[in-house]
DNA sequence: ACAGAGTTGACAACCGTTCTCAACTAGCCT
DNA sequence: AGGCTAGTTGAGAACGGTTGTCAACTCTGT
């Protein structure tokens, strides 16, 4: 837990979740992480897992994206703005950057008079080892 | 209902949903559409609304995207590949195209050995009349 | 040790979506 | 027209991910 706000305690549970998030590279659901912690011998209540992940997402320590059916999946990510190239089969994820895309989205929005612009961009494919 | 498959009937309900989808420009949830139909005097069961929307999404007649909290929202769209510039406040939506982005995503995926590439890209902002 | 704010977790509640299945149609054959 | 059949509908139940509840617990400072 990097983010230290006033009155935010580094409890066993929060540290366990943070550790778990550092132990894999792909995107996983809250329930997966909850199970992983249980198997690992650091059981953490499901509600706490959700709460902690939320906090980490807000702090920018973790990226959240949605599967095709709307389920939230989480991954520890670098703190700079980036996007993901995700394997549709095994979940293997690569962080990618595209300055041109950043420029383009801002330009398009400007052309239509939209301000305060943000965007989401994810690329899906089949990774080399899943072909 | 444009898509005519073998044994697919243009029922009152399906036509009503199709008509409803042509009556607005922004993205709406299935429940919104269900209510809209009721108010309009063409009540259609919620399950049927979901089923019909699914079918239209599969047929490419309707675009589906997810709100921040994972809810599915639907909009009648042109059948060519495109993305959306959506007003965060009122939902006003503009379809946009970006050949450069299309090229870029394919290139990035290729560089990492990913094949069978697809992507999602949505731009959010505040439209002129909501500023 | 004590107080008080922060945290936890079992469980219930929520809510969007999907399933079930008996009743109902639209379309087709005679 | 009458009947046959595959397709469709909708009320309600079920499902599954997520959030809320709240009494018990745990830090941390005094
Ligand atoms: Zn893979
Ligand atoms: Zn970006
Ligand atoms: Zn607007
Ligand atoms: Zn595209």
UniProtKB/TrEMBL annotation, chains A, B:
It is found in: Cytoplasm. InterPro entries: FUR (IPR002481), Fur_C (IPR043135), WH-like_DNA-bd_sf (IPR036388), WH_DNA-bd_sf (IPR036390). SUPFAM superfamilies: Winged helix' DNA-binding domain (SSF46785). Its cofactor is Mn(2+); Fe(2+); Zn(2+). One of its GO terms (molecular function) is transcription cis-regulatory region binding. Binds 1 Mn(2+) or Fe(2+) ion per subunit. Binds 1 zinc ion per subunit. Fe cation binds at residues 81, 102, 119. Zn(2+) binds at residues 87, 90, 127, 130. Keywords: Cytoplasm, DNA-binding, Iron, Metal-binding, Repressor, Transcription, Transcription regulation, Zinc. One of its GO terms (biological process) is regulation of secondary metabolite biosynthetic process. One of its GO terms (cellular component) is cytosol. Pfam families: FUR (PF01475). Belongs to the Fur family. Homodimer. This is Zinc uptake regulator, Fur family. It comes from Nocardioides szechwanensis. The lineage of its organism: Bacteria, Bacillati, Actinomycetota, Actinomycetes, Propionibacteriales.
